[in-house]
Specification:
heterodimer; A: about 600 residues; alpha/beta; ABC transporter transmembrane region fold; Rossmann fold; 3 domains; six-stranded mixed beta sheet; four-stranded antiparallel beta sheet; about 60% helix; elongated; disordered N terminus; B: about 575 residues; 21 helices; about 10% strand; disordered C terminus
């Protein structure tokens, strides 16, 4: 909670950054500023004319003079209204445009980052940065700056006017108001601190409900309802107490702020009236002063709001700039590598060699892969077996260029993959991830993503047939044109995986990598897919990771990984005969399947 | 809308009743808080009229003092009101939250299966918070605005009805402008939300699918698409900004028109000695107070509607009742562990039974193994034993007492349940064993060692106080299962219900798991959903389930003799490998 820190200060680089964002919109911003400057000035005219009118009436004005004053008042008001429109329109609109630009730039840079970048910056965090943090920066660019500027002008004009009309009266009334922005800011800070405290209790409650509902089976199974209800009582009561306690602080602050304004007003009224009595002040001036004074209170209170907005904006901007710094570091480290290009692809798939590969995600994390060596001959099909966490997925990511492998550990036709541009390496492989990730687009568009040219009209039948997705297609009303995702249809896990497989086939890469791609597909369909896949594999190599070992009947050789190490190796039949880890797991799986098909 | 609003008040009342005095006090304070500011314009009028009439300066002093007193009184009632209302709403929400939780917790498992976790979380947290905001801010702000408008009208009418009409004349067009604005902004907000959700989906997809973008070289294409969504979102906001840019100038203009009309009529009245200068000056002040709440009215009505919808969602949870009736009270302090399923029929949907009339008995100290395909009903039998659901017909009893009549605490103690994917709470190892029960630390440690987690315990710097992470993420699958054994053993249950893990488990845990399972099954009654041949072979009775019915039953050797499904499975397995 950096906002609740003891002394949140505005970062020094806040304003240069903001000005840089405004640059493309400088004309609009200039129009907005001009409109603000004039309209705030015109706003002061109503109290002015009211005062003039009152004094005029006292001195026995006729209808004509009164009408003229009122007409001028109206004219000024109409101009002010038009200019108010212009300032909101140009400034706030401009801030939305700047928000758009920042988001677009951020997205483009993020997209160029490799998957390893996202280990440290999980999607949820980036989403927050791109939404709520960006919103706060935008609030600074639009409403905060506009309001700050308006308020400063308002104070300058109003105070200047009051001083000009009667400096002694002005000083009397304004004296208490000096504390107003300070007090308003304190109010804001105290409220933020209270919210942060309450937020902590809310988080506790939210965590409690999350865990208790996720584990409701345990709660019920063990008859622990009473304990959990009591925990809820305790957490909820702690929140209640915190809320009630902070009410003493937050409840006191706003009345204090308004009371301060009221005291100023009382002093003004008293001093003004005494002066009118002494005939050193006109009634009109007193009326003008009270009106101006009343209007001055809200912008002053608003200053507290603006400064809290600036503070939060600065914190958010700091987070955004940290992210940009991270991105820059990556960009720099990538550009410092001396990379070599791969030769253009040949008709036969390349020889893939893994030599004594060890890998961990960070120096302080355990090894995921240890001293692993194997060779994938051109056109061969190689299986990788192993339980969850055995390192299968990491291996496939290193091979396919999603992660940069350690130096001299993975070779493509003898060329060290760690020194090849990642995108170039990725182009040689077609990886099908386990989750069958699809984009919210039509089925045809998702398939077209596999094609290097992106043409959606490419005949996709062979791929759909090979992945057995053709059997699903007739059940989908709009067929290939059906939109997937939140605003479209939801495919089952198996369907998603089959479609993802078809998409990967469409890429026609020389090495196909299947990362437990058929985990959600039933056993019979899996067999059918693997059979249909065979003709497509002619002239291609295959690395097939799977937790279901029946798939390995189709592999020439199987590597068994246990804790990132090569535990066993051989054909499916060899491994079963050996009676090791592979055989045990296979037995469990086939018992399940036998019972299922019985 | 109206009827549901009033029923909402009725439903909130039980929670508000204990604090009704405080609530009444808050209402009185609020009236004072909104009424006292009118002392300002009123005293301005008095002062000016007093001076115009050539009154003494002492009158000025006393009126200024009166004004000061009113200002301070308003501030003080504002302060007390804020404290009172926060206390009231915190109490109401506390009552609402805890009784909502008891209601939710008491539902059958069907209730939880029907709803995604996220949805329930939203009801219990966000929507309850909305009710809090409804009480402590929304209703308050809105009634503040309304009171200010009502008091303002009343005060102006009382002080000069002709001048008051000049102001009130502008109330209808202002309310109309506000109404139109509110509808436009509501639609525009909806559009903004839609575009935002599209934009966020796109962002989320591109981030979580970044590997895929790279594999297929989709950078350019995805970028173009994101740019389109980003621009659409901007356009939606532009429209929204347009409405706001027009609304406030229109309000300002109407306010100024009112001022102009006021002075026009005021001048005419003054010329005829029908209104004083003080009245004119005080009206120009009152008008500022009177028109200000209108600027916020639109947002406040929108807030009210949103909070009301949230409150309705909260109460809709109360209206749902799933079929598990209240727990019984029959005590069973020391069960022997005889479990009887008698003609048990159960289906998640009544028309589609999953368990179709199953009967069997587990004698004290024996093991019954259930074998069957996914969907054969074996996990459902375990769920019925935990009373996640009640049978549609037939009965389940332990030591002759029907589960439905058993006190929940004793039911919980009678059964030790180990699920295939055991849920671990994010606390420590010890917390997950104790589950809030009062268990000495030595016992927890010995239990952990008993299930062969001793080696793990010794390597952990914080020992059994080490957090297990979200859903036990810091433990392996095997360790999680072993921990749930310790949890089940903690209460020394008469009956152990075990759903064996099928997922591949590393060799070390696998061996530990086998040993612990064999040891524990020998000591008490057990119902095992079996996947491992070793467990099945040693069971006292094996029940082969198919489509919710018992297909075969008997001991291992009896079933082999029968030459049925079990025998076939056994030979298939046997030919495949060693046991």
């Amino acid at each position: 909670m950096s906002t609740s820190g003891a002394k949140p200060s505005i970062r020094r680089d806040l304003f240069p950054y903001l000005f840089a964002q405004m640059r493309p919109y400088r004309l609009q911003v200039a129009v907005g500023i001009l409109a603000t400057a004039i309209s705030v000035g015109l706003d002061q005219l109503t109290p002015h004319f009211v005062g003039i009118l009152i004094d005029g009436l006292r001195s026995g004005w006729g209808v004509q003079e009164s009408l003229r004053t009122i007409a001028m008042m109206l004219l000024a008001a109409m101009f002010a209204a038009g200019l108010l429109w212009a300032q909101r329109y140009y400034v706030i609109r401009g801030s939305r445009a700047m928000e758009h630009d920042i988001r677009q730039r951020l997205f483009e840079r993020l997209q160029a980052m490799p998957p390893a970048f996202f280990d440290k910056r999980p999607t949820g965090e980036l989403m927050t940065l791109a939404s709520s943090d960006l919103d706060r920066v935008r609030d600074v660019l639009g409403p905060a700056i506009l309001h700050l500027f308006r308020t400063i002008l308002f104070i300058v004009y109003a105070v200047g006017y009051l001083l000009w009309r009667d400096w002694e009266l002005a000083l009397w009334g304004l004296a208490p108001l000096v504390f107003m922005p300070f007090l308003a800011n304190r109010a804001m800070m105290a409220m933020h601190a209270a919210y942060a405290r309450i937020q902590g209790h809310l988080t506790d409650l939210s965590n409690f409900t999350h865990d208790a509902i996720a584990g409701i089976g345990v709660v019920k199974g063990y008859g622990r309802e009473t304990t959990f209800a009591q925990r809820m009582d305790g957490l909820s009561d702690a929140l209640r107490k915190a809320t009630a306690r902070s009410a003493w602080a937050t409840g006191a602050l706003w009345p204090a702020v308004t009371a301060l304004g009221g005291v100023g007003m009382a002093v003004l009224l008293w001093r003004g009236a005494v002066r009118v009595h002494d005939e050193t002040l006109t009634v009109g001036t007193l009326a003008t002063a009270t009106m101006l004074f009343f209007r001055l209170q809200w912008p002053l209170i608003g200053l507290g709001w603006v400064s809290s907005m600036l503070q939060r904006g600065a914190t958010s901007l700091g987070r955004l700039q940290d992210l940009e710094k991270d991105i820059e570091n990556w960009e720099r480290s990538e550009s410092e590598l001396s990379l070599e290009h791969l030769p253009p692809p040949r008709a036969t798939p390349p020889l893939l060699e893994v030599r004594r590969l060890s890998f961990r995600y960070a120096p302080d994390r355990p090894w995921v892969l240890r001293d692993l060596s194997f060779t994938l001959e051109p056109g061969q099909g190689l299986g990788i077996a192993g339980g969850p966490g055995s390192g299968k997925t990491t291996l496939l990511h290193l091979v396919s260029g999603l992660r940069r492998p350690p130096p001299a550990s993975i070779f493509l036709d003898g060329q060290d993959l760690s020194r090849v541009p990642a995108a170039e390496a990725a182009a040689r492989f077609a990886l099908v991830p386990q989750d069958g990730f699809l984009f919210s687009a039509t089925i045809a568009e998702n398939l077209a993503m596999g094609r290097p040219d992106g043409a959606p009209d490419h005949p996709s039948d062979p791929w759909l047939a090979a992945s057995c997705f053709d059997q699903d297609l007739p059940q989908i009303p709009q067929g290939l044109q059906a939109v997937l995702g939140e605003r479209g249809i939801n495919l089952s896990g198996g369907q998603r995986q089959r479609l993802a497989l078809a998409r990967a086939l469409a890429k026609e890469a020389s090495i196909l990598l299947l990362d437990d791609t058929l985990s959600a597909v039933d056993a019979q369909t899996e067999t059918r897919i693997l059979e249909r896949l065979a003709p497509h594999l002619a002239g291609r190599s295959l690395l097939l990771a799977s937790h279901r070992y029946s798939a390995f009947r189709f592999a020439a050789r199987v590597l068994v990984l246990e804790n990132g190490q090569l535990a066993e190796e051989g054909t499916h039949e060899d491994l079963i005969a050996r009676g090791g880890y592979y055989a045990r797991a296979w037995q469990l799986q086939s018992l399940e399947e036998e019972i299922a098909s019985a | 809308m109206k009827t549901s609003d009033s029923s909402l008040v009725r439903r909130l009342w039980p929670y508000a009743k204990p604090v009704r005095l405080l609530l009444g006090l808050a209402a009185i304070l609020m009236v004072a808080e909104e009424l006292l500011p009118f002392a300002g314009p009123h005293l301005l009028k008095k002062v000016i009229d007093h001076l115009e009439a050539g009154g003494p300066v002492s009158g000025v002093h006393s009126m200024a003092a009166l004004f000061l007193a009113a200002v301070l009184a308003a501030a003080f009632s504002g302060f007390l009101r804020a404290v009172a209302i926060e206390n009231v709403s915190a109490r109401i929400v506390h009552g609402l939250r805890t009784s909502l939780w008891r209601h939710v917790q008491g539902q059958g498992m069907a209730f939880f299966h029907k709803r995604p976790l996220g949805e329930l979380m939203t009801r219990l947290n966000n929507d309850v918070d909305s009710v809090n905001r409804l009480l402590s801010e929304v209703v308050l702000d809105l009634s503040g605005s309304v009171l200010m408008i009502v008091f303002g009208s009343a005060y102006m009418l009382a002080s000069d009805w002709r001048l008051a009409l000049c102001c009130l004349l502008f109330l209808p067009p202002m309310l109309l402008a506000t109404h139109i604005f509110r509808i436009k902004v509501r639609d525009s907000n909806r559009e903004v939300r839609q575009e935002l959700s599209i934009l966020n989906t796109s962002l989320q997809e591109n981030l979580s699918g970044s590997a895929l973008v790279r594999i297929f070289g989709l950078e350019q294409r995805r970028q173009k698409e994101f740019a389109r969504h980003n621009a659409d979102y901007r356009t939606a906001w532009f429209r929204n900004v347009d409405y706001y840019s027009r609304y406030f100038p229109v309000l300002n203009l109407l306010t100024e028109l009112a001022t102009a009309l006021l002075f026009l009529v005021g001048t005419w009245l003054f010329a005829r000695d029908m209104a004083s200068l003080g009245t004119l000056a005080s009206f120009s002040w009152t008008m500022g107070m009177f028109f200000r709440p209108l600027r916020e009215l639109s947002d406040r009505i929108t807030n009210l509607q949103q909070s009301l919808t949230a409150a309705e969602r909260v109460f809709s949870v109360f209206d749902e009742r799933s079929v598990v009736p209240a727990d019984g009270t029959h005590p069973l302090p020391a069960p022997a562990g005889e479990v009887e399923f008698r003609d048990v029929v159960f289906g998640y949907a009544p028309s589609n039974p999953v368990v179709k009339g199953i009967s069997f008995t587990i004698r004290p100290g024996t093991t019954t193994a259930l074998v069957g395909a996914t969907g054969s009903g074996k996990s459902t039998l375990a769920a019925l034993l935990a009373r996640f659901h009640d049978p549609d017909s037939g009965s389940i009893s332990v030591d002759g007492v029907d589960l439905r009549e058993l006190a929940p605490h004793d039911r919980g103690k009678a059964f030790g349940i180990v699920l295939q994917e055991p849920y671990l709470f994010p606390g420590s190892l010890a917390d997950n064993v104790a589950l809030g029960r009062d268990v000495p630390r030595e016992r927890i440690e010995s239990l952990l060692r008993e299930v062969r987690l001793g080696d793990l315990l010794d390597t952990l710097p914080q020992g059994m106080d080490t957090p297990v992470g979200e859903r036990g993420a810091r433990l392996s699958t095997g360790q999680r299962q072993l921990l749930s054994f310790a949890r089940a053993l903690c209460q020394d249950p008469a009956v152990l219900v075990l759903d064996e893990a099928t997922a591949s488990i590393d060799s070390q845990s696998e061996e530990a798991l086998q040993e612990v399972t064999n040891r524990l099954l020998g000591e008490r009654s057990a119902l095992v959903i079996a996947h491992r041949l070793a467990t099945i072979r040693d069971a006292d009775e094996i029940i082969v389930l198919a489509h919710g019915e018992v297909r075969e039953r008997g001991t291992h050797s009896e079933l082999l003799e029968k030459q049925g499904l079990y025998a076939r499975l056994w030979t298939l397995q046997g030919s495949r490998g060693t046991l």
